Every structure is written in structure tokens, then in C-alpha cells.
Amino acid sequence: MAKPRAQNASIDRIRELLDYDPLTGIFCWKVQRGRQRAGAVAGCVTSRGYRYICIDGFFYLAQRIAWLLISGEWPEFEVDHEDRCRDHNWESNLRPATSAQNKHNSSLRRDNTSGHVGVSFMSHTGKWRASMIHEGKFSYLGEFVNKADAVEARLSAARPARGEFFS
Asked: Of 13, 56, 111, 120, which sits most exposed with the smallest number of CB within 10 A?
């Protein structure tokens, strides 16, 4: 969907085209653009839940534009949604993150059957295994008879390692 871009749009150009409400995270057009009237909500939400806004023929993630307008500069890496909702672009919900930090703050996978990240049932042993990946390294935390013990082992290891991006 997004065209490659040689450089990011300037903050002045974005301020010329968009109004951003940091309390609601909503972007509105200041000017009429094609079929979009001034005052209309800017951008569209993709099937993956992210809002993209087209500026001068190039698509930008709304959270990156929000971060630019909040901080005055384009984010160096990624912008994480603290509540994990990809179209909640209000200021208090956004934070800069590396790719790894952003992945740490993700929802459970669809195929997760334990209800907890990093905890799985090992049918061949009849035990619960706790594990995690941190800084690209797999950590085996043990096998447990009780699911609650495996969950506690995972939480105890993940909290200090991941800080504010803990999940």
C-alpha cells in the first residue's frame, strides 16, 4: 500500500494540511483534498488496524505523524501503542520503541491455548513449560506440574527484563 519515500514530509507541511488532537488522537484535514473536505477525519484504517494518512502521494502511519507533532521530530525507530490498539493515537498512549520493545507489547497469538505469553502445555510430558525470548536469545525457564507455577516463572523473568514494555 505505501509508496517508498525518499524522505519524510516536513513538520511544516504536515501542520499545513492536518489538525491533530493529542487528547483524542484524531487527525482532521485543514484543507480540501480531492473528495475529502476540510474538517473530515484524515486517513484510513487498514485490515491490520493501523491508520495511514496520504500526504503528497506518500502514505504515513498516523502514530508516526502524531509523534512528529508531539515531539517535533520523526521517531527514530517505531512508535508503540501502550494499550495495543493500533488506531488509538492520543499522546498519552504513544511511546517510542525499538522493534523488539514493540513486539514485547503485543497481544496473545491466536494459536495460544494457555492464555499466557510464554507458557505452553507439553503433551508428551504432561507439564507446563515457561520460556521467553529476550534480546534475541531463547530462555528456557522450566517445566511445571501446575500452570500457575509456569505463569509465575514467566512473569518473574519477564518483568525485570522488559520494563515498561512487559507482557
From this structure: 111
**Segments forming the whole domain that contains residue 115:** 109-165
Same domain, 26 and 82: yes
Does residue 103 belong to any structural domain of this protein?
no
Residue indicated by cell numbers 512528529: 68
Note the pTM of the prediction, 2 decimals.
0.70
Give me the torsion for CA of 104, 109, 84, 8, rounded to 10°: 70
The helix (run of H) or strand (run of E) holding residue 2 is none
List residues bridging with 51 in a β-sheet.
45
End residue of a domain, out of 75, 97, 119: 97
Give dist(CA 24, CA 19) in Å, integer: 12
Task: For residue 62, give the C-alpha cell.
Answer: 498516523
How many whole angstroms from its chain centre is CA 113?
Answer: 23
Give the tens place of pLDDT for each residue, 121-157: 999 999 999 988 777 788 889 999 999 999 898 888 8
Question: What is d(CA 151, CA 154) in angstroms, rounded to the nearest whole number?
Answer: 5
Query: Quick check: helix, strand or coil at residue 140?
Result: strand
Start-end of H helices in 23-115: 62-71, 99-104
